Amino acid sequence: MTEPLPPKRPTWCEIDLSVVKDNLVLLRDLVGGGVAIFVCLKGDASGCGDVAVGRAVQDAAVDGVAGLAFGNLDRAVAARDAGIGLPILLYPTCLPEAAPFLERHGFMPTLSTLEEVAAWSRHATSLQVYLKLDGGGFRAGALPHHAAAVAQAIAGSATLKLAGVYGHPMTSYGPVDAGYTDAQVTSCLAAFDAIAKAGIEAPIRMLSSSAIILSNPEADLNAVDPGRLVLGHGFPAVAGRERPWRHALVGLRSRLVMVKSLADPGDVMPAPFLPLRPGMRLGLIPYGWSDGFPRRMPAAATALVRGRRVRLLGPTHSELIRVDLTDAPDAQLGDEVVLLGRSGGEEITLPDLSRQWGTDVSALYPMVGKSIRREYVQSGNR
Ligand SMILES: *Cc1c(COP(=O)(O)O)cnc(C)c1O
């Protein structure tokens, strides 16, 4: 006799991994065959699970996918441990002493300064590295007028090999800062020229995260490294770059673990936070602000129960949320409560939920995906 599986907390989000391949195919078609694709899995792949998404990227085997990029060394190690063999670019995340470890794992670190080149050279035996450019975002990267010198130092190192040069112009997804993005792209393009003029070959030349791919086609060069686009986050696109990206995050669901009537509250004191309604019915779901739900109950927070829209009632709790079931009189213990997704003829979409929570879709992903169980689904083409 086998033991039955232990029951799980009935709160979960749904990640559709089939979109990874579909979005990569759209991207492949968009940037063309000569442009390599690195998929950025930063932030636990925006809360979707970096190992699961990395494996989906590997299994999709879309032409031109050249590797993955991580911002956290520990997560890159987890990907290798899970059997992901693709080349891995590390954004600035570790110190030069890590060089032998990186060589063994096939990880390529990011260098910005002459000081780093000297230190990494000392610790490495034969290490592929990337030079990063700072076009005015003022984070990691060599400023354009330093870039050729740093590239030259890498080229002159006996232990380092220049795998590529990349930049990451900052964007703010609106027309207000488009000029600022364009200026960084222009600065980085000048730095690529300076490196080439110094006679240094950068096999990979890369500038475009998701927003830049859609807004600045001149920055495609010979490689791109989008993250969120692969998970379906759209950004403003110039003519010809619109595509039907599909979102990976498709559901946020829980179940009623308690339902009771407040139609006759007896002689308990009325609560200042909970205006009772005639015939009121109250439900609870095992989900709360410890799980990514906003700490303050949004005024517009709703969910779907049996195809009907119901309100969530504050205050929020660490791991519980109240549901006003007065308008769903047939709801009962165990019923599904949909915060994102479909229920009967009703739907709460990602933009709806981000409006409810007073945030944007990109911020919503990790809020939902990082703290609760993920169920991976494969929808196939819809
Ligand atoms: C985060 C990051 C990306 C990917 O950004 P998205 O907006 O998710 O596409 C690309 N390149 C670098 C250097 C990054 O840090």
Describe the structure.
By secondary structure, this protein is an alpha/beta fold. The chain has helices at residues 18-31, 42-46, 50-60, 73-81, 99-105, 114-123, 144-155, 178-197, 210-215, 350-356, 361-369, and strands at 11-16, 36-40, 65-70, 88-90, 107-108, 110-111, 127-133, 160-167, 204-208, 223-224, 249-255, 258-261, 281-285, 302-305, 308-313, 321-324, 336-343, 346-348, 373-377. It folds into two domains: 18-231, TIM Barrel, CATH 3.20.20.10; 249-377, Beta Barrel (Lyase, Ornithine Decarboxylase, Chain A, domain 1), CATH 2.40.37.10. The strands form two sheets. Strands 1, 11, 12, 13, 14, 15, 16, 17, 18 and 19 form a ten-stranded mixed β-sheet that branches. A nine-stranded parallel β-sheet has the order 5-4-3-2-10-9-8-7-6. Helix 1 (18-31) crosses helix 3 (50-60) and helix 7 runs parallel beside helix 8 (178-197). It binds pyridoxal-5'-phosphate (PLP). Pyridoxal-5'-phosphate binds at residues 40, 42, 71, 91, 168, 209-211, 225-229.
Key structural traits:
about 375 residues; nine-stranded parallel β-sheet; Lyase, Ornithine Decarboxylase, Chain A, domain 1; ten-stranded mixed β-sheet; single chain; TIM Barrel; alpha/beta
Which shape, going by the Cα principal axes?
elongated
What is the helix fraction of residues, given as a range? 25-40%
Number of separate strands: 19
The main β sheet shows up as:
10 strands, mixed
Note the gap between the termini: 40 Å
Could you give the order of the helices and strands? EHEHHEHEHEEHEHEHEHEEEEEEEEEHHE
CATH superfamily of the largest domain: Alanine racemase
Bound molecules: pyridoxal-5'-phosphate
Domain module tally: 2
Strand content bin: 15-25%
Helix tally equals 11
- In the CATH hierarchy, the third-tier topology of the largest domain is known as TIM Barrel
Identify low-pLDDT runs. Answer: none
CATH class of the largest domain: Alpha Beta
CATH architecture of the largest domain: Alpha-Beta Barrel
What class would the helix/strand composition place it in?
A: alpha/beta
Q: Radius of gyration over alpha carbons?
A: 25 Å
User: What is the typical, i.e. mean, pLDDT?
Assistant: 95
